[in-house]
Protein 1
Amino acid sequence: MGTVSRRYGATDGFVMMPDGTTHYIFGFVDITGVPEHMIFESRGRAQLPAPLLEAYEGDDVYLTLTNLGMPGRPDLDDAHTIHWHGFPNQIPLWDGVPEVSLSVPVGRDFVYYYRPRDPGTYMYHCHFEPVEHIQMGMVGPLVVRPLIEKAPGYAGRKFAYNDPATEFDREYLIFLTEMDSRAHHLVANVQEFDWTEYRPNYWLLNGRAYPDTVKPAGAAELPAQPYSALVSVRTGERVLLRFVNLGYQQHTVQILGIPLRVVGEDARRLLGVHGEDLSRRRNTLYLAPGQTADAIFTAPEPGVYPLYSTNFHRNTNDGSSFGGMVTEVRVSPRRARPERSRARPVGRRRWSHGDNRPVGERRVPQHP
Amino acid sequence: MATIDLWVKDGYLSTPDGNSIYFWGFSASPDGRAQVPGPHLVVRQGEQVTVNLMNTLPLEPVSIVFPGQWPVSVDGRLARPQYDQAGNLVSFADHAPPDRGVISYTFTPERPGTFLYESGTHPHKQVPMGLYGALVVRPADYDPGDPAHKTAYGFGTDTEFDREYLLITGEIDPELNNAVGEGRPYPVPRFRPRYWTLNGRCAPDTMLPDRVPHLPHQPYGSMVMGQPGEKILIRLAGAGVDNHPVHPHGNHVRVVGADGRLLRGGTDLSGRRFTVLVGAGQTWDLVFSWTGLGFTPENPIPTVLPNRRNLGVGDAGWTMWSGSPYLGQKGDIPVGVVSFNEFGEYYFMLHAHEEHKITNWGEFPGGMMSMVAIYPSLSPAVGTLP
Amino acid sequence: MPALVRKDLWVRRGLLKLPGAQVPFWGFAPSPSAPPVLPGPVITATAGDVILVTLRNTELPVPVSLMFPGQTQVLTRRPATRWKPVSPRYEAGRMVSLTDALDPGTDDWIRYQFRAGKPGVYLYQSGTNPGVQVQMGLYGLIVVRPLGFERPSSPNYRTAYGARTGTGFDIEKLLVLGEVDTAMHARVAAGAEFNILDFAPEYWVINGRSYPDTDRPDYDATLPHQPLGSAVAAKTGQRILLRLVNAGFLNHTVTLGGLHGRVVAEDAFPLASSELDTTYEKTAVTLGAGQSVEVIVTPGHPGEHYLRARDYLRIVNVSSFPGGMMTRLLVTA
């Protein structure tokens, strides 16, 4: 089994919406391998969503959280934590709930540990003042890959779970959140927000609102939102969509013309006690906050298939439509070269210097 | 045969932020106080149940409906909806007239499980006002002295449990309660909850024991307690008008039942989830178990625990942490922080993941949140329903 | 033999009658002189049939379209074009319609065609500015029958999804859920701007009607734009198939009036087959926007029940009970 070591900084930053507005966020930034004397250059460079954390089942995962402070809110001395949402049998020490264990004050480090045993799609987020910190953007995706990928006969192939029926060719993250820009504005300006008045006006896929969702990964004009939500595949390919809802609203999403087969929910393969395949077939996926779903489809004939919220009033950017939770599944012919855009960059990239080259020490095999 | 008497009364709910909210609730005795939720009703499969309802509200008729129980009879005939003289629907079932009216319902639960009971009269008002509760039907072969027969759904249904808890979700818009209390019309489309409740309480009151004296109208706590490896049955019931995604830390739950039915028709559909959407008017039976990762002082954690003074311990001067990574151990807590940890137990939060719902009128912590506490040892008397 | 099922739909303005309000709406009409109806005319086909819908619009000053969630390989054409797969429409690089649309004052019509590959209940909706147009009433239902549905000798006879799916029924009821924001309707119908963030419905409908109108019979003369009632009358032991489809923007929970029902299909996929039965029982079901849930209730005893939104703030008309998303289920011996 391997060891995955990462170091994330907790800090703040700004995201951009397609209507030209900019919004203050809290978030995480990957500072793995950054020399100690340089980590503070990542202050104010939080990304939304937080960096994708990946491991194989059985890996030892060490995640160091460093609280870099909030240059946009120098008055704010909030601590932060990491809660790995859905990891079974965690002990409170590493569960990230400050009321029942530890939190990380400004300028301090803490190492979280877990050895994941169950493949699937998870999420992680800060649990300090969670109502504020989650809405402000301290949310990220977490993928545990199955060991079947390392088994003889399966090497080089990709699976959602330890089940050949969950094999796929490409995978994309669909990470659902919302943003109430009034809350962000008030937090930026050291004002109170009544969270019972939460009324989002932006709805996001992978931290972006349409049409930014279809821009490529690492688009230079979206430095804090590196993950594209464009699904770009070829006819006949098996495509895994990893849905995460870390907003505060229940969402329903649909791909026009493409039914889905949900093979896993909450990082559990949908299997009966006798091994029956209990995958759910769906035209519309209903996901509540804190839930994940893994859905597979086989890419149909070439064309553009829109993906959108069926809560149609949410496909908007602050009242301007189309916007919000809309993206595209672009299917190209079998022999065509795939488009270069991906739901997320390969490996780890440093956006802080505008450098799109991967600098990660470990590249997980993914898109062909 | 079980006979249950319920009085409809009014009272004032208490919220942790100091608010006091007028409500209507059921009471189990003529001298008792109105409570929310109504008394947990525990009956046995196949045994006839009679519920006598006494209504002390001066102006409103009140009825009770028992979703999932039918037929329900009144005076030897089927319960039926009530209409006013103009033909407008008033109640989904025969009601007790205002000002000390009475009505009596009789039914025989045919199947075990977790069910709701609630007002069937002007439910847009009476249910948010607090006229709801839960009904647990024990399987006919239930025997708490025999582990194989201490089950949610009967012998051989893979629903054995060591302890059980009943958690009922709800939400409160004080403006609705105030309007009703003052006899003012309430504009329903403006409903906006400010409090979200488990068993009628908001966090941190949810973590207090049952029947604490200063919450006379909210007798039920929501602290889930158990030992490592135990099967803890959590019965979740959605009595409010909204759906709530309930996320327990610490482990997945196995969802074994829904709406009073074992999730095993042709196929065993029980599945493990880390967030369960408690839909309005629905119930879910979950089995939670925490076995841990095997860390003990002899098998230590693979990370170095830094000096506590370099870390945040607790929030606002208190913590529920023991100061130790290990179950049953206590460690250093920095000076100035009070630890409410008793025996080195572990706490895992259990909460609505629509995070604005874990506030009391916007202030975290609060709302629909409690804890699962794993103790190194715990009395078998903890985690029982009547 | 698979048939070609033709349907002509005209987009027209109409007036919804809700308890205490008259609300302008946009709906589909089966002819240019017929009243538009909510939900739109039911399109019925048999699995394997090709459905060909012709959409016309002579009344609204906006582009309109049809999309068919749950269907695959939908084709479209206009008078001067050939059949081609549907695709979103863009303006200045931004999607403005989820599917091909008909512009006002241009072509006479736009057509959509697809093979109704499998049985079930499906929505059709406007794919153009759906946040406005679907709310205004541009939605309807497609019912696809299994082959042999009407042939008593067929194992699929009077089943929703065919033999061995546990979907045989004696009574069938389509229940299309929705909500109506009267202020939005008034503004949009008048051509005024409406900020979708202000969406705040105060009427809750089943088949376009709010209680007590839900209790009125189908094709009631007083409700020319809302022809479908939703009250159910059954005898004990009859299998009542409730085909719940959420055409609204919000999620809705419907209780089965205190009875248990067996969920037999979700999103037009049956839950049982000859190999595996994954049906389950519920007293209430929650439907996300755009979802369908089909339940068979087999009452064992007589009784008078109300199928209703379990969000009890939605069984009112604006603020007054009774109303909204509620309908009667009467079971006699």
Protein 2
Amino acid sequence: MLDEELKRIWNASTQQERVKLDLALLLQDVDNQLRALDRGIKFRNVLEIGVAVFLLPMFLISAVFIPFLLSKIGSIILMGFCAFLIYKLKKVRAQKPKDVALPLKEYLQEQRLYLQQEMRLLTTVAYWYIAPFVVGMSLFFIGFAEIGAEGLWLKVVGAIVLGIVIYFLNQWELNRRLKPMLEKLNQTISSLQV
Amino acid sequence: MATKQEDLFLTVLESYKDRLYRVCKSYAKGSDEAQDLFQEVVLNIWKSLPGYKGQAGLSTWMYRITLNVCLQARYRQDKKQARTLRLESIHMEKTPSEEFDAEEEERYKALHQCIQQLNDSDKSVIVLFLEDLPYKDIAEITGLTENHVAVKIKRIKSKLFTCITTELC
């Protein structure tokens, strides 16, 4: 089979199925879809970062006004945790490849770099997310023991359990989604170079 | 009144729609997935158009976007985003099967089947070759050298010929 024959067969597929564009509607349609996608991204950002932005002044207030030393220390740790969370997520999001018009090899390499950063974030989640969160929350609750508040240990255990759940959810995401994705990307990049 | 950019978008899309759709089809498992991919390509072309400064030819630029979007979609595990895209202004018009040659259809099916069996990088190179792009453009789109493209195409064609011959026998 000759090259020309192959190309002819390839082109003939268009005879079976053709794309029809309604040009009068297309621009409006594309604009609406982009706006909907943007709303989705903003909503996700509000969920991920907005909660930390909201909690930051709360912990500042509790660090100033709650009289118990351990609760103050816990609040300060949690403030640092919220600020660091905002910084970390913004930093990774900013590195997401945006230029979809790059040459394929370059685009795949950028995707891989971003994916590796996301994976690093999840691999180290125990140190930068779980530990400060659990320690901060626990100290915050234990501080109230000074006034003999009840059920404090239950709250501490709750914070630890929440930390463990968050840890396993992150590891699940890492193993289920990111690792296979990286494997596929590595395969494509290396086969492109052969 | 349409701006210059809007005019450009509509004109290039009208001229390249079938070519880009053919590329999408080679990365999709079925017609629905191909349509989803094509819609995503259209959105990305529109989004990227303000950044197009003419460094690469317009067709090179659009094929880059198409390949990148198609590959990215394959790596994305959840197809949530693709499913939420619904551009009502894009339709597929299918020709009734009695209107085209059965033998021709069989040959296309064999070719498509064999392309599906290639790995993603070989697939990207061969679909650009089938789109009749010169090696120079394929090199610009993939980021490989022209020599590398030539070597790859020779190897992929040989795989493809063997596969098609088996499929058609």
